[in-house]
Each structure stands twice: as C-alpha cells, then as structure tokens.
Amino acid sequence: MSSRAFLRTSDGVAIDAVYEPGAAVYDTSGTPSAHPVFVVAHGFTGAVDRPHVRRIAAAFARHGGVVTFSFRGHGMSGGHSTVGDREVLDLTAAVAWARSHGHARVVTVGFSMGGSVVLRHAALHPRQTDAVVSVSSPARWYYRGTAPMRRLHWLVTRPEGRVVGRYGFRTRIHHRDWNPVPLSPVEAVRRIAPTPLLIVHGDADGYFPVDHPRMLAAAAGDQGELWLEAGMGHAEHAAGDELLARIGAWGVGRAG
Fold first, then answer.
1. Has UniProt tagged this entry with the keyword Hydrolase (predicted)?
2. CA-based nearest residue to 96, from 58, 125, 120
3. What CA–CA distances, in Å, run from 196 to 123, 129, 163, 237, 247?
4. Res 23 pLDDT > 80
5. CB neighbours (10 Å) of residue 222?
6. pLDDT, greater one: 214 or 126
7. Residue 24 has what pLDDT?
8. In the predicted model, what is the mean pLDDT of residues 206-222?
C-alpha cells in the first residue's frame, strides 16, 4: 500500500517522502522482499510532487517498489538546501524507510545534484545500498564552464539569487559556504566498489559536458558502467521512458 510520511534525518530535518509498492504488490509471497526498492534522489529545485519526479517513479514502479522524497529546502521538507552536502543525510533516512517496508534490496538512483548525492552516500555508507545509478552528475565541485552552471552559482551564492530560488523555484538555499568541503563525486566513486555502479550521461548535456562522466567512469574502473546517451540533455527532464526502463532493468539485475 502506498504511504506518505515525514522522515527525521540524523540532524533533525523533516523530509517529505512517498512509498509506492509498485511491482512488489504482485509478489506471490505476499511480501515485497523479492523485489528491489528504487530510492529516487531528484535534482536541484525538484520535489516529490513535481511531474517529472512522479513520471520517474511510475517508470521504476514497473520493476519494484519506489521511494521518492524532497531534499531539505525543497517542497514540503524542512531545512535549507546545502546543494549536495548534508543531503546525504536525507537519502540515508529515505533508504532506511525503504527497507522498513520489507525490501531486502535497495537501488539508489540520483539525477544531477541527486546523482552526486547517491555517489557520496554509497561511499560513506557502503552497506546501505545494493546498486547505485548516477544520472547527469558532476564529477567535481565548483564547475562554472557552462552558462547554466554560472547561473546556478549566482542563484546559490548571491543573496538576490537565493531570493529568486525561494520565490521563483520554491527552493530554500542555505546562506553558508561549505565548511568543510564535502567529498567530491569523483573521490566518492573510488570508494564505492564492490557495489555495482551505473553512470548515465547525455552527450548533449548543457550543464556538465562529457568529461564529467568519463572522469567518473575512469575512477570507477571495472566496477562501474558508463552509458553515454546520444542526444540526451540534462537530468530528469531529459530521461525518456526507454532509458528509464533500461535503468530499471539494470537495477533489478545488479542489486543481487
């Protein structure tokens, strides 16, 4: 049965989350344990009720249970966004909630900012997830090489940008700089093995060019798999139904 709850992170932030049993409802044993649960980590300015997040949840529900949630500072969740730093605590709470529904296997799938979060979560909490999919993630912090990323840095670092974030994108952004700077995605990838890792990136991504996924794949070595998708843009909005179906099948096959 579907359910919605506010989860409490280890630092006390309330996180809005939704669970859907999806394909697990058809388990003849009457429990979802035979099916994995996909925990979806959205991109910056996303939220659990956004149409693109609900579309992704519906696609993964064909392969197992699904947990979606709003990162801190997004949607109805509490707190302020730290743009990928303390969001690892939000994902940790969502994964624990997913397992509480009886799923023995967890696949974390993140997009853009969420893609960096699933990498850091797997590196810092290696026994909490059984397979990791990172879509459209940066490889390194502070990248400003494209116009969209320069606009994003203005949104995050400038007081007037944070006002636009709050009222224009319904995203509350923390005013403090990172201290200390969190483990970078490429550094995190080196720590994920032996957990299976899939890196997905579009060759038409306007935020992070293809040197980012190639750097991540090189750091992963034989333990990682790279899908460089022809004509694909950035993150959730660019992920078509066929790609989501392939990711779902990969997760079922690799999560053990």
1. yes
2. 125
3. 12, 10, 40, 25, 13
4. no
5. 6
6. 214
7. 64
8. 97
CA dihedral over 95, 99, 101, 105, signed as positive or negative:
positive
Q: Tell me the Cα Rg of the chain.
A: 17
> In sequence order, what DSSP letters do the residues of the chain get, joined into one string?
--EEEEEE-TTS-EEEEEEE-GGGGG-TTSSSTTS-EEEEEPPTT--TTSHHHHHHHHHHTTTSEEEEEPPTTBTT--S-B-TTSTHHHHHHHHHHHHHHTT-S-EEEEEETHHHHHHHHHHHHSTTS-SEEEEES--SSTT---SHHHHHHHHHHHSHHHHHHHHHHS-B-B--SPPSSPPPPHHHHHTTTTTS-EEEEEETT-SSS-THHHHHHHHHHGGGEEEEEETT--SHHHH--HHHHHHHHHHHHHH--
The whole-angstrom separation of Cα 152 and Cα 173 is 12
pLDDT tens per residue, range 50-82: 999 999 999 999 999 999 999 999 999 999 999
Domains and CATH numbers, the chain: 3-255 (3.40.50.1820)
